[in-house]
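Slide 14.
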Amino acid sequence: MNIDIDEITLKVYRSRLETDSGEGAADRQVAEHGEEKQKRWSLIYRPTVIETLVQVGLYERPLPPRQVKKSEHEENDQPQ
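Slide 15: predicted structure.
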């Protein structure tokens, strides 16, 4: 299953805007400020969306790359 986090985040933002500011508020905001600006504003909900998806088992956070200390590299490069 492929999940589009940005799409879900935008839908959550638009839904909250409609709930807080009344019906049609999300469309008015797009008309006034543009769709790209609304997408940027929606990013405030991204951590909440990701955490919710993780908790229900629909998404796994990517693991950060393993950082190796310089001394480990030097030890591995030395002939024994």
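Speaker note: Residues 74 and 80 are 12 Å apart (CA to CA).
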